[in-house]
Amino acid sequence: MTQNTLKVQAFWDKDAEVWVAISENVPGLVTEASTIESLTEKLRKMIPELLIMNQIVPFDD
Description:
Layout: E1 9-13, E2 18-22, E3 30-33, H1 36-53
Antiparallel strand pairs: 1-2, 2-3
């Protein structure tokens, strides 16, 4: 099994008071959450979905 490394940047937006995540490796990834834990949970769901939607990884039915 081949493993790829994806870089996700997370930062605190003090004006909006939310954590924001973006990634050049995951097309379409831009999300925010009020806590880092909530952000992590969102990313665990979003990243695989975006990788499949963008045909970066194959979809196994």
